[in-house]
Structure formats: structure tokens, C-alpha cells
Design a protein that fits this description.
It contains five helices and five strands; from the N terminus they run E-H-E-H-E-H-E-E-H-H. The protein is of the alpha+beta class. Helix 4 runs antiparallel to helix 5.
């Protein structure tokens, strides 16, 4: 199993990002924070002209469930997703929650992580 899940679309960057955010909301995942990578790097005096966003997304009910199962799950919350453009294509992806939660070593997190993994994978697929 891959450490990440990434999909590719022909949608323009802004439309792909908008659709992803709408599909996340429909799946009850909120965007807690969105880092505009080019803007932040430019603020620091570094040029980076590729559209790139890093989103931190969370379903509060699932986050509570994970933290109650094992407080160490907090090291990996919230879930991280990226949207970027390269060579005329737009990519949307995530680090797979199943892979991350395995690091904690608590079997009780496995089913939880698989459910979140499946939901977010579905969101990415729907956002194509």
C-alpha cells in the first residue's frame, strides 16, 4: 500500500481546490487551515511560482474518537492534503491515515484510520 493517495485532474487549480473543499464539507471534514505555499515563500523572500496549497482537514467526531482511543493519535492530527499544479495538470492528494496511524502501534486505531482513509479517498475521487 502506498504511503500517499494522489489523483490527477484536468481541472484548473482554483476549480479543483474549490471542488475539493466542497466535497470535504459534504463528508463532514472542515478545512482548519490552508497554507498558500507560494504566498508564504514570497513573504520570506523566496520565489515559488507553482500553485500549491497544503490543507489541514478534520472531522471533529473522528478526531475525538482517535484521541480517546490513543492520545498519541494527536501527533498525526489533523489530516493533511495537498493541491498543486504541474505540467498543465492539477494534483490532489493526502498522506494515507492508515499508514500514519500504524506508526502509533495501537491496533485500536486501525479500523478508525481505515474509515477515515476511505472517506478521504472518496472525497479525492469525487473531486476529479
Amino acid at each position: 500500500m502506498e504511503f500517499h493517495y494522489t489523483v490527477t485532474t484536468n481541472k484548473p487549480f482554483d476549480q479543483a481546490l474549490k471542488d475539493l473543499e466542497a466535497n470535504l464539507a459534504e463528508a463532514r471534514f472542515g478545512v482548519l487551515w490552508a497554507l498558500d505555499v507560494p504566498a508564504k515563500l514570497q513573504e520570506k523572500g523566496v520565489e515559488f511560482n507553482q500553485p500549491y496549497r497544503i490543507l489541514e482537514v478534520c472531522n471533529p467526531v473522528k478526531a475525538k474518537q482517535a484521541l480517546e482511543t490513543d492520545p498519541m493519535a494527536g501527533y498525526f492530527l489533523p489530516c493533511k492534503m495537498t493541491v498543486y499544479s504541474k505540467d498543465g495538470k492539477t494534483y490532489m492528494g493526502m498522506v494515507r491515515p492508515t499508514m500514519i496511524m500504524d506508526v502509533v502501534g495501537n491496533p485500536g486505531l486501525r479500523d478508525f484510520a481505515a474509515e477515515v482513509d476511505g472517506t478521504l479517498k472518496g472525497v479525492l475521487d469525487k473531486s476529479l
